[in-house]
Structure formats: structure tokens, C-alpha cells
Write a structure and sequence with these properties.
With 197 residues, the chain is mainly alpha-helical. Helices cover 56% and strands 5% of the residues.
């Protein structure tokens, strides 16, 4: 019977972590923050997928789940790319490309076609799946900010910034779409709200 390798290596006990090329960086390095936040976004998407699965068999929900599964794979590719310094990248490594951005734009347009246009800001909420997608959106926006900060001092692929920007839009639209599919009302922003009596 073969034994699984240990999950712990002890190599990070000094506060560093390894990149794909073997270099070690502080765990608080901006590059590590970037791919750690991408991982966090994928975790939120995983929770959204679980919440969708709990709703039973629906063709439109299955379609969205397929998109979210693809996004998780794409985010893993992005995290791998961010964990690799430019000099260590190879042509065979999976990476984000423009067609990924184009695919997100098509998905956004398709989902938005089913929704009422917005005339004001709305608050996150609604179904569990919609809520998790909104958390993923907020995490994606944080990842984008971190990647922009990294790009000001180190080289990252410009297409990756386009991808995370478009992904946050997709997650927002998908959250609205899911809530509409489940009959959940949107909570509109009231700039003149008063506390309850």
C-alpha cells in the first residue's frame, strides 16, 4: 500500500514560502498576497457552488455551475502564474489568455440579458449562493488591487489584470442572476435610510 506524502514540510516555519522556480519569499510579500487572495476567491466560489448544488437539478443552475467550475480552474492557473517569476515561466505552463477574458464578457452579456437593468446600487444578499458570489466578487476586487500594486514594482501579465477585472463583474452579475432565478428580491441602497424605531 502506497503512502501519501506528508502535507507539512516544515520549510515555511521561518515565515517564507516557495515559488514555482524554487525561490523563497516572505509570506507577507506582495506576490504571495496576490496568489493567496486568488485562492481565497476560489474558496468563496466553492461555497457558492455548494449552495447551488443544494437547490437540486435545474438546467440553468447546472450551466452556471459549469462556468464556476471553469473559473476555479482558471483561478488556479492564475495563481500558478503569479507564483512563478517571469524568468521561470515556460511555454507549456497554463496561464490566463485573452480568450478567457472574452469568455467572461460573453457570459456576462448572456446573464445580463435575463436581468432587469439597475437604476441604483444594490446591497449584497439574497440566496446563500448569491451571497457567496458577492463575497467572491469582493475578494476578487481585493486581488485586483494587490495585483495592480505588484505590477508597479514587478512584471505580471497585463491580461491577468483584465481577467480579474472582468471576473469581478461576472461574479456580480451571476449573483444577481442567481437571486433572480430563486425569486430573491434585490435590496436597493437607500441613501436616506434611518435606523429602525
Amino acid at each position: 500500500m502506497s503512502r501519501s506524502p506528508r502535507i507539512y514540510t516544515r520549510s515555511g516555519d521561518d515565515g517564507t514560502t516557495g515559488l514555482v522556480g524554487g525561490q523563497r519569499l516572505s509570506k507577507q510579500h506582495r506576490r504571495i498576497e496576490c496568489f493567496g487572495t486568488i485562492d481565497e476567491c476560489s474558496c468563496s466560489i466553492g461555497l457558492a457552488r455548494r449552495a447551488l448544488a443544494d437547490q437540486g437539478e435545474r438546467p440553468r443552475i447546472a450551466d452556471l455551475d459549469a462556468w464556476l467550475a471553469w473559473v476555479q480552474d482558471a483561478l488556479f492557473n492564475l495563481g500558478s502564474d503569479l507564483a512563478t517569476l517571469p524568468k521561470d515561466r515556460s511555454e507549456t505552463m497554463p496561464r490566463i489568455v485573452q480568450s478567457d477574458v472574452d469568455a467572461l464578457e460573453s457570459a456576462i452579456d448572456r446573464a445580463q440579458g435575463d436581468l432587469q437593468p439597475l437604476d441604483t446600487f444594490i446591497h449584497p444578499g439574497g440566496s446563500y449562493a448569491g451571497g457567496h458570489l458577492n463575497v467572491a466578487r469582493a475578494v476578487c476586487r481585493r486581488a485586483e488591487r494587490l495585483m495592480v500594486a505588484l505590477s508597479e514594482s514587478e512584471s505580471i501579465e497585463p491580461v491577468t489584470l483584465r481577467f480579474v477585472n472582468r471576473l469581478s463583474d461576472a461574479l456580480f452579475v451571476w449573483a444577481r442572476w442567481v437571486n433572480a432565478e430563486f425569486g430573491e428580491p434585490e435590496h436597493r441602497w437607500n441613501p436616506k435610510a434611518f435606523p429602525p424605531a
